[in-house]
């Protein structure tokens, strides 16, 4: 039942309560009805017993003649059955001096003799003030009362409970039918009422579900849907939930706006700082190159030091350029949109990677293109910014070169898959640590410890690739295990 919905549990609770109440009322009313009818029957039984005892007292010793069977069944019925007022079905048994006389008034008004089993049951009743219930074989249940006459004779009188049993049984049938109808009506009505009362809660849940689908992680501030005012009445429990959800959404929206403003300031600062740093870095590099040209006029240790300065300034320049590019992508700068053949980009980028990493084995896997009247693969053309897409491929190849040991094979493949162009860079290096995979595309995330210690990357290459791919409405993902790491870029194919 714990897995049931709230609506189902409430309806089941209502129906269960109705069943319990109806059952309790039915049991109490049935017992009360039976008790009342048995009480009236006992009153009639006492009156009938009184008449039978009176008839015995008036009849005297001669009223009960002996019989040929030793007194077990004397001739003639008991005097108590001949008295006016005795109803049909009344049984009577008289024991005088060991002689037994018994009989029953049948439906026609005549008197029928009782058999031995019936006589034994009646004769076993002890004289007392309260009637008792006995089952007479072949006749059913009777209320019987035993009394003694003034002469000490035993007189047992009984009245059938058939009418009481039939009335109670009919009452139970009617009561059960009424209870079933009541339970059915309660279930239908309860379901309708519960559905109506829970409808505001459903609207609150629907609002929460729609809000949960808003991409809040992107940092973009969008108007967040609110629970309607009609469902925020603080006087009701559902209204309190709706109002609390609205307050939560207000807080979330305010927090998102504050975070967006802070990130905007940081991006602007990074962009401005990166832009301003390019000039002094260029000056530093220029002076370092000047010293290198004048190496004959300066000491060797100064030349070596300035060589280090030049190398670090170049590295710093690359870092600044990468940070400036990320800031521009975050700001939503428009990219150039032209038709770009990723196969051609790969054909240009792989030789450059081979020149930069001669210790690696570089392979280019391109399908044969379709030509006039010949079978082949369609061109892998996308609409985008060619320099930026080239940078994505260069960064992926550089990542494979820097973070894998010499001798690693790196395969670059381009395929057209329906409406998507798939670019993949696969290497057979040591793989990426599983704990690092979810963070590879985060900024300043480094894989040195897992792939190639001491490579010294800035940690922005994959972040730039991810930002550029997302700016082109594409996706980038990585699957890695020891001996196989695969970066896959999917971009929408150009129309036509």
Q: How would you briefly describe this protein structure?
A:
With 496 residues, the chain is α+β, with helices and mostly antiparallel strands. The chain is built from nine helices and 13 strands.
Description:
By secondary structure, this protein is an alpha+beta fold. It folds into three domains: 162 residues; 93 residues, Signal transduction histidine kinase, dimerisation/phosphotransfer (DHp) domain (Helix Hairpins); 155 residues, Heat Shock Protein 90, CATH 3.30.565.10. It is 50% helix and 17% strand. It is built from nine helices and 13 strands. The chain has a six-stranded antiparallel beta sheet, with helices on both faces. Strands 8-10-11-13-12 form a five-stranded mixed beta sheet. Helix 1 runs antiparallel to helix 3 and helix 3 packs parallel to helix 4. The longest helix has 57 residues. About 5% of the residues have low confidence.
